[in-house]
């Protein structure tokens, strides 16, 4: 079994992480991860980069903006694995974002069976909740489902 000091080629990191090679290069360009170079200029990554990539990927999937991930990872060294305490610190920093995302997803799940303020006026409740598409006068999109649609530029969905 390989130990945590092994250096992995970018293709192996991509295979193991499930991320595209281009994404790994992009994350390195942003300073989220670091590699060493061989004499021939090929990237080699420490095995602990796999956990960092997994956490970055998971955070993005649940709506943590990449800029926020980068800012929160900035204090930690790139050349050493993060400690359990470090991961707990990140988890606590992202908890409010995750709780808000869970609440938003729950509201979407619960609201899809009723008028969502999209302007279709096809459901019986639309006459009550969105008479004559009044919600469309202020903004586009499903106004009851996403009341603050203009603030969602950094969500992945």
TrEMBL record:
Residue ranges of every copy of the HTH merR-type domain listed in the record: 7-75
Gene3D superfamilies reported in the protein's UniProt record: 1.10.1660.10
Protein name (record): Redox-sensitive transcriptional activator SoxR
Gene Ontology BP annotations: response to oxidative stress
Keyword Ribosomal protein: no
Organism: Galactobacter valiniphilus
One MF term in the entry's GO annotations: DNA binding
Pfam families: MerR (PF00376), MerR-DNA-bind (PF09278)
Keywords in alphabetical order: 2Fe-2S, DNA-binding, Iron, Iron-sulfur, Metal-binding, Transcription, Transcription regulation
Domain of life (superkingdom): Bacteria
């Amino acid at each position: 079994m390989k130990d945590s000091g092994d250096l992995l080629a970018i293709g192996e990191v991509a295979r193991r992480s499930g991320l595209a090679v281009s994404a790994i290069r992009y994350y390195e360009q942003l300073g989220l991860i670091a590699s060493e170079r061989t004499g021939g200029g090929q990237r080699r990554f420490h095995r602990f980069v796999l956990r960092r990539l997994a956490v970055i990927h998971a955070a993005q999937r649940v709506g943590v903006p990449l800029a926020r991930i980068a800012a929160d990872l900035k204090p930690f060294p790139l050349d050493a694995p993060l400690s359990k305490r470090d991961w707990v610190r990140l988890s606590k920093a992202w908890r409010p974002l995750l709780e808000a995302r869970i609440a938003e997803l729950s509201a979407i799940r619960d609201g899809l069976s009723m008028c969502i303020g999209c302007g279709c006026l096809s459901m019986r409740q639309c006459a009550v909740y969105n008479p004559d598409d009044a919600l469309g006068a202020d903004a586009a999109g499903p106004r009851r489902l996403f009341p603050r649609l203009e603030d969602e530029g950094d969500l992945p969905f």
